[in-house]
From TrEMBL:
One of its GO terms (biological process) is riboflavin biosynthetic process. InterPro entries: DHFR-like_dom_sf, RibDG_C. Coiled coil: none annotated. Gene3D superfamilies: Dihydrofolate Reductase, subunit A. Residues 111-170 form the Bacterial bifunctional deaminase-reductase C-terminal domain. It holds the Pfam family RibD_C. One of its GO terms (molecular function) is 5-amino-6-(5-phosphoribosylamino)uracil reductase activity. This is Deaminase.
Amino acid sequence: MGTVVMYGSVSVDGFIADEDDQPGPLFDWLLSGDVPLDETGALKVSQASFDYTRPYWDQIGVTVVGRHVFDLTDGWDGTPPGGVEHVVVVTHRPMPEGWDPEAPFHFVDGVEAAVTKAQELAGDRIVEVAAGDVGGQVLAAGLVDVVRMDVAPVVLGSGKRYFGSVHAQHLLEDPDVVIQGDRVLHLRYRVRRRPA
């Protein structure tokens, strides 16, 4: 099975968006360089960020998001973002009315079922879980292997937390990746497993 990675851009005070679901300058690093990150050329990053981010993006098989993110993005118009093959949406509601049932989106009730479905779809590729409430729930369930953060040099003060509403302590290993890009610090941590 593929590695489960919780991922997101985050402020230095731990927020992935402000109170109005706006990222503010959290994604400035995606526009601050001169190396195209994808074929559109819209995203341009530093060489250091490209060397770290592009290989990761190429390994993602499935992204898991909550219904809130799905609704905010209008379901990416039925096309998974960033070339990902499938999106698993954690929701208690049915798919939206008029939604194309052939689109590679899977609506699942509960984070455990979502990760199971995502791993089935991803095979040995990475299962990416969006940071925020769903990511925090997946972490709390003990299903996250790796935490990846793109830390932007901004303090938002309040908003949507990277780890959602996690209320228990979770230990991470020392970072195994620390890379400075332009307007970003890329960090990667393995999740420390509790003894069985």
